[in-house]
Every structure is written in structure tokens, then in C-alpha cells.
């Protein structure tokens, strides 16, 4: 399992997004939280910002759609050049069609589950996805406290993914920092979103390196 770190620009300075992207040249992805005031009680950014970011950085964009109608909008994020587009299982009405469309447009397809959404009902969809995102906070805001209660689900998701061939990435998102990343890695996550822990640090690049090292240390033991 290769560890990947995806800093969330939700915690960055929105007035200086290009500079904030450049501040983490060692990141594998830039995590872009799209919120619409409907699926979650917050509003962030949409397609025009993703299109602008795409031109401003070579780091691939990992778009996390927390929106009420992902079936309608997700393909447009793939068309806008996102390297990965993740939709929420709780919001999608036609997840299989939408995940296939994302892939057909050349992006990786992700399926996200809220903390209280069980993973087992989605076992049959593993062939349709490249990544599963397990929320470790309730979606909507950065800077929340990590929910340990999700860790058993991360383990069960890792088992399902391994039984399916191990090709699917397992991402955790929310409250991931130097104090929680090791538990996530130990439970089987391999892609780590970190907002405050990266952009709240005085040296975001060093914070990415430190998170990666902590996750790798856990996987090595
Ligand atoms: O999707 C979300 C929140 O809904 C996350 O991507 C947050 O942006 C992560 O921020 P931190 O919890 O790491 O500060
Ligand atoms: Co996110």
C-alpha cells in the first residue's frame, strides 16, 4: 500500500489558492471540497474554481462532491480535469451510472460514505470504483474532531477491498492529523486527506512530509 497525502484546500486561503497549491509540491493530490448548502450546511466552491485550479497547478485534483445532485454535476468535474471525482452514496440516486460516467471521462471514480453509513451495502459496487472515501467527521466543515467510532468500518472496508483484489484506494477524510493518522493507517486507510493539519501548520510542505512519514511508520510495523 503506497501512502498518499491529499491536503484539503478548504483550510487554505481562498484568496490565494494558486499559492496555496504551490505550498505543497510534495502532495499526491489536492483535495477540493465542493459543498452546495443542500447536502451539507455549508457552501464552498464549484466548477469555475476547479477549472482555474486545474490551470494553476500540476498536482492532480481530488474533488469531493458534498452536493445534493451528484448525478447531474459529477461528470462536469471530470470534464473540468479533476483526476478523481468522489460522490456521496447518501446523495446519488444513480450511483452506478454516475460512477461509470466519471470513469468514461478519464477520471478516477470515488464513493464516499458518511460516518454513520455502513459499508456492507456497497460491497457490490466495488467493481465500479477506484477509491472509497470514509468520512471521519460529519461532512460540511474543516477543523472538526476525528471520530474514532469510524475506525472499525475502515477495517471492514479494508477487508472488503482486499477480498476484491486490493486495487481500490481507501481514503479517510476529517480530523486527520499527526495524532490520528497512525490509527487510520493501522486500520487500513492508504489515502489521507488533511486540511487544518497541513494548511494550519507554519510549514505546510513539512506537515505533508510528517504525515506521510507517520503513516509509513505504521504500515512498516
Ligand atoms: O470533506 C471535508 C469536510 O466535510 C474535509 O475534506 C475537510 O476539509 C477536512 O478538513 P480537516 O478536518 O482535515 O481540517
Ligand atoms: Co473532503
UniProtKB/TrEMBL annotation:
SUPFAM superfamilies: Ribulose-phoshate binding barrel. GO terms for biological process: pentose catabolic process; pentose-phosphate shunt. The active site is at residues 33, 173. Its EC number is 5.1.3.1. One of its GO terms (molecular function) is D-ribulose-phosphate 3-epimerase activity. The keyword Manganese applies. The keyword Nucleus does not apply. Pathway: Carbohydrate degradation. CDD domains: RPE. Catalyzes the reversible epimerization of D-ribulose 5-phosphate to D-xylulose 5-phosphate. Belongs to the ribulose-phosphate 3-epimerase family. This is Ribulose-phosphate 3-epimerase.
Amino acid at each position: 500500500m503506497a501512502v498518499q497525502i491529499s491536503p484539503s484546500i478548504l483550510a487554505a486561503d481562498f484568496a490565494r489558492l494558486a499559492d496555496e497549491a504551490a505550498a505543497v509540491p510534495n502532495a499526491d493530490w489536492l483535495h477540493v471540497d465542493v459543498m452546495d448548502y443542500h447536502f451539507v450546511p455549508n457552501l464552498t466552491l464549484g466548477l469555475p474554481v476547479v477549472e482555474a485550479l486545474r490551470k494553476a497547478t500540476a498536482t492532480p485534483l481530488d474533488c469531493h462532491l458534498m452536493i445534493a445532485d451528484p448525478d447531474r454535476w459529477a461528470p462536469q468535474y471530470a470534464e473540468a480535469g479533476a483526476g478523481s471525482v468522489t460522490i456521496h452514496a447518501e446523495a446519488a440516486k444513480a450511483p452506478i451510472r454516475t460512477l461509470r460516467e466519471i470513469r468514461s471521462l478519464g477520471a478516477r471514480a470515488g464513493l464516499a460514505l458518511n460516518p454513520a453509513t455502513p459499508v456492507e451495502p456497497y460491497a457490490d459496487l466495488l467493481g465500479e470504483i477506484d477509491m472509497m472515501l470514509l468520512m471521519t467527521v460529519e461532512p460540511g466543515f474543516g477543523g472538526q474532531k476525528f471520530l474514532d467510532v469510524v475506525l472499525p468500518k475502515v477495517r471492514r472496508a479494508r477487508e472488503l477491498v482486499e477480498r476484491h483484489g486490493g486495487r481500490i484506494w481507501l481514503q479517510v477524510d476529517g480530523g486527520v492529523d499527526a495524532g490520528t493518522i497512525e490509527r487510520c493507517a493501522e486500520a487500513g486507510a492508504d489515502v489521507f486527506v488533511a486540511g487544518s493539519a497541513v494548511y494550519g501548520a507554519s510549514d505546510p510542505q513539512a506537515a505533508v512530509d510528517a504525515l506521510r512519514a507517520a503513516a509509513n511508520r505504521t504500515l512498516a510495523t
